[in-house]
Fold each of these.
Amino acid sequence: MPVIDILLSDFLKLSEVDKLSYIKDYALLYAQQFSRKDLDDYCILADKCRALFKSTEGAQKLAGLLSNRIALNFFVQPSSRTFLSFSAAQAILGMKRMSLRDLNISSISKGESLEDSIRTFLSYVDLVVMRHFDNDAAAIAFWVAAKAARRVSIGDEERPIPIISGGSGNLHHPTQALLDIYTLGKSFNESGGIDGKKIMLVGDLKRGRTVRSLSYLMKNYNNVELIFAAPDQFQMKDDIIKFLDSHKIPYSKIDSIRDAIDSVDAIYMTRVQDEWDKVEKGGHPPTNDNVIFKKEYLKLMKPTACLLHPLPKRDEIEIEVDYADDPRVVYWRQERNGMWMRVAIIATIFQCDQKILDS
């Protein structure tokens, strides 16, 4: 029986929620895919993987799990952290790896469609991780994989080649949201977890796919409140606001970090996403002073609060904060957490998670 039985044009017209009935656990495209149990399981598995890797025997066990699999990292938008963390995660699990990072050396530059390119990739690999400037790119790749004749054996089932979104357009970055949850959970380990926390999202919320995906995950937690700190032109889009309203998640909008810095449990900084604008090289405009995290704000933060950033950053966090030796500044740990979360994601998609947990 086919995994998907509708035309690509019809599939793309579906809402993200309606697409989920086709995607199931065959691919990872949207933050809306996950339940609270999924998030908890991913975090437990990431912890188990990093603990195993500390010993030679454990590292060898991890490296033997997917040694017969080949991954393609198809990244045609600039990336360092997401690309490297996926590549490292694949190496930890023993996968062989290939990459394609420049459309100019792809047949797409000759006019080949994305659909045909993906179909070609599926002939050679067992996993495609992709970052693309098109909001629909990952959905297109999933549809092609679901329609393609080639299948991969996972567990006791023949499945489509898995597709994992490493960022699609300016709307979705589900694996970043998962690692953000992992980081928040570890930061709140001694204060009751994420439930009941107040989280401030700062910066270019309108075009920030990381904060959008993280907002979707808040439906899985109890009594969480979001505060959107941004200038009007960068405030969160209405689709996220409607989602929060539909799930009765409280939120407020402010234009300055200082207005809420002393009352929140987490501050999630982002940069201005001006790659979506026509900006001349070296011509990034300065960040609005109201949404710059200054070293003095560390004195105003709660003792149990944490400061996150998906990176890369520019001037939205004063450089002195990087070297303040403050355990509440967690964005460098957040970066490494991304590798372990992506180990957990790949292990889960290939159904070798239980082997890890049983180790």
Note: The mean pLDDT is 93.
Amino acid sequence: MPEDERVIVVGGGAAGMIAAGTAASRGLDVLLIEKNKVLGRKLLLTGKGRCNITNSVEGINDFVANTPVNGKFLYSAFHAFSNHDLVKFFNKLGLKTKVERGGRVFPVSDKAADVVAALEKFLKQNKVQKIKGEVEKITVQEAIGGNVFLKDGRVFPGRDIIVATGGLSYPRTGSTGDGYRFARENGHTVTPLRPALIPLETEDRWPAELQGLALKNVAIFLYDGSNKLLYSDFGEMLFTHFGVSGPIILAASSYLNDIKVSSCSLAIDLKPALSEKQLDERIQRDFKKNANKYFANSLSDLLPSKLIPVIVKLSRISAEKPVNQVSRVERKGLVNLLKTLTLKIKGFRPIEEAIITSGGVAVAEINPKTMESKITKGLFFAGEVIDVNAYTGGFNLQIAFSTGHLAGMNCRARKV
């Protein structure tokens, strides 16, 4: 078969691998080009190395609702390859899955490497040719085909070209924004690029004293400058040298894309299972139990040891005050502090630290039923390079798999 009749997929991540395998499963000649030595490098890092592949929500509307940026564009992709289709796909390849809190779907093994191995098996089964190389330029001419130029001088002609190069996040995995340049060079608009699902820096410096401390089962409340509630969540968070991170913080960051971040504040409820009255009663019991101790030594049953010095300082109650001398007003202030531990948000961490990139190739210029460019026939886009993004919980990876599958199903190269 002539080389100019093949499909070329640029990018060996989630979207690229499933696009390549899907196109090849239709009998097409497929070449997959990846700049890294290994495929799926970003996949290996997702979900803390466990890889949250999708979410178990039932309907397509639920996925669209969890995709705040251009979710409606994805109806066809989700319909063509749903979360249920994805789970069956992996199960057929020998990867067993499980559902955890919030509908998050993980491999039973808890190993992202097993997800990558299953995708590589899919490529091998369908005889996808793979090469390592860094793409310099892509040119596509309607009815003629295109060429992929590598930085080392090699040129690969192809009938259809699928760009699945990821975004700007995690550049060490190869996602360095090349796909946006390829899109612009072929006549496409790229919407403003911003971080999404990203840790937050705080004006307050005390989180640095808690660096590495993870809190489970806490509630957070994100407010704008006028004290309007933007977002609330429950789960796990992490203190860092710059501020806060962790699953519920990353999810909260998605609500700050169109808002002046530096005007926002974050309130943490350290004891969401208790009302203020119940927490006050709990503290009184602890004080009674530790009646002969100093205040700083009376909180060990209530808080992690690393958090106690910070809470003592913020409470403005003397650390060496006998606990039986703590006044009712001071105790009420402590209750309020534990229920609304507030931080002033300074801004986002650098986009390189974001899990995903918000912005990308304008969806108005892509056919949602095929993932093919409306501007340049024969050029397709899949995954994070497109201007879509979702909340945490497996939704973004499902977007990658669904758009990759749809692109792979609609290539028009001749069959082998």
Note: The first strand starts at residue 7 and ends at 10.
Amino acid sequence: MKFTRRDVIRTSAGVAAGLVGSQLIGRPAFAQDALSFKPEEGASLRLLRWSPFVQGDEDAWLANTKRFTDATGVQVRVDKESWEDIRPKAAVAANVGSGPDLMLVWFDDAHQYPDKLLDVSDIGEYLGAKYGGWYDGPKGYATRDGKFIGLPVAAIGNAIVYRDSWVKEAGFSEFPKDTAGFLELCKAMQKIGHPAGFTHGHGVGDGNNYAHWLLWSHGGMMVDEGGKVVINSPETLKSIEYAMELYKTFIPGTESWLDVNNNRAFLAGELGIIANGISAYRTAQINKDNDPKLTEIAKDIRTTNLPIGPVGKSVELHQTTVGVIFNYTPYPNAAKAYLQFMFEEAQMSDWIKGSLGYCCQTLKGFANNPIWTEDANAAAYSRASETLRPNGFAGPLGYASAATMADYVLVDMYAEAVTGAATPQEAMEKAEKRANRYYRV
């Protein structure tokens, strides 16, 4: 059973369309409240966003966009790019001053070019006051010097996805909650032919999520509160040694994986444990081609949060996407009206539900969406925005934190060590040197 990228992202279209469509009946087309922007005469917009891994996310987003056009007359062209291409496309647009009017960018990328972005503090403050406030982590990605340079659209939760029957076959009645037990489980899973696999490649989401969890769970940090690079530490060394032991239990090839690869291998039955968004489960659950193997996999899938390490508490990075408006747009009012519209309750609730738990709300007022309780496997993703630790920890977010992540400094440190390309000490020292190119205190 082989899976292409098309197979992975072609998830839940019919179900999501039904969910969204059922909620449109009797709803007024456009109801903005205290804040309102009048689009410019003849305005049209172009939004560039990331390709979906859960089709219902895109379907609901496009349905909401159509509502906006129907209500305002503003045509919105929605284009998409692969996850890995979003960051360079945004940087080029910001630097040359042309391209899409709006983009959905990653993590703290907006902090690399804040002067190129429209100040949307009026929308950010309005939405926060109306919908219970923003979660701190996502808000930090979208604010700088007290101003909103974008709006945090969603946190894409990352959790353990595993085959329950295989975990039991390996001798574990329940999934381990700490890193020591987790390592023992991975060893046992490898022995019975159902290994684990975690991304050591340049996966924007999966590679970064895994690397940051490795570091933080052992008490390591890239920088301290003052922004001084402190990656060269005994805690980091322990995390590298742990990663090396885990890597020995992995399916081959994880050092070259991008975001799609672990989904593909897991759904093909090649391995039994991955760290991923809920997309892997939803693909098997929806099973549009009625593949009996996928049906069985879906029944056997369970999800849980990543194990707790020596630091003694849950510390996870969840991929956050931020909606930004470039200040070169000729239609700033239309762009602001569009962003506000997409965050209002009628649209946001539909989108969260349409994404089937893939996109976690960034405004506290949407936390009770029924999608989080309709399926037990959604629970591990329901608090992603609330619990995420920003990648710049423990220092401030800014150009340095964004550039260090964009350069995959932390991801490469672990990859070089686990593959034997460098000793743990050499890998750590190289990461320190690379990070210091961006952090100049």
Note: The chain has two domains: 5-157+318-387, 159-317+407-436.
Amino acid sequence: MAVRAWARTVIAAICMGALVTPGYSRAEGEWAGGLTDPRVVEFRVESGVLGESRPVRVYLPPGYAGSDERYFTVYVLDGEQSFYSTAGVADALYQSGYPKLLVVSIPNVARSRDLTPSAWQDAHDGGGADNFLRFLRDELRAEIGGRFRVSGYRVLVGHSFGGLFATHVITTDPGAFDAYVSISPSVFYDGYKPLDDLVRSFGRDPGQRLGLYVAMGAEPGVEGDGIHRLYSALAQGAPPWLDWRFERFPRETHSSAPIVATLDGLRWVFRDCVMSEQQLAGGLGAVREHYVAISGRFGKRMRPPQRVLANLGFAQIETGELDEAERTFVYFVEVYPGMILGYDALAEVHIRRGETEEAIAMLERVLELEPGYGDAAARLRELRGE
């Protein structure tokens, strides 16, 4: 059997968590067609800080129910609009080799009140940003930590007023999150005061390295002017503790920019979680060293993604580096003992070496984990001469 065709068959097991999102009806938790998505959890938080009940919607990573893993958390503002697009981005990134993400969305109750640092013009009820931050930091985070398996690494995603809120958090309590995705932030607000406050805050050291991704569409007028001023401030005086990136999407508007910017922003935040082809050329040792090195930054043990190890091992089989391929897939089954891919790949290595008994043992293990895997059963019968 050609390895390339075989590899495509086996690696499909990695992708079983992919989700095509159907339509969502107005009835809470009810999907079009009468189905309920087990990866969507909805509840309310009774907030003493805000003095009100707040709805929350959580999107679980693929395979959450059958795992003991702890996940990075993405908190997304304007949750009534951004929940499913952000969830789709999280799934797409995972299918591209990035880590699984747990998405927490916070729908608005009083948007201008909660997301702005002061009352100004039409936002006459503004000025509640500090209270809303206290809700996120002291109440919602504790609720999420009590209900779900999450790591300590958190990302905040906000658009427009939500992007303004993200810059306000960096200004007042930068360590509340580990990274910020601020899309088309309304830093022109209140005569550019939030921008001025942010720049002044650069002189303080939060004691940790933080990430800030800023993006905008083609936005004329005062909105775009404020974002360009923010870029200039970052380019001229970003402090050493702030790792930042600025991106402009000229084909997008203020309304469409969040779709592409959320994808690009989260890809940038977690860029070190994937390896380039050049890095992979260093083999298994380089892979293991890379993920050990970034574990400290992300605050948890970082396992090489299944896809990274699989691609490395398949390439080693194709080039005849069977000893290296064996080491790669032995490590794969150490890290992912419940996945059939590693055992199936080891069976192929043993078959190519003519090690029939070892290959049979690996295929038997595959069928213990996945009794209906017909390809493994066929190869096992062939090896046994049945």
Note: Residues 129-147 form the longest helix (19 residues).
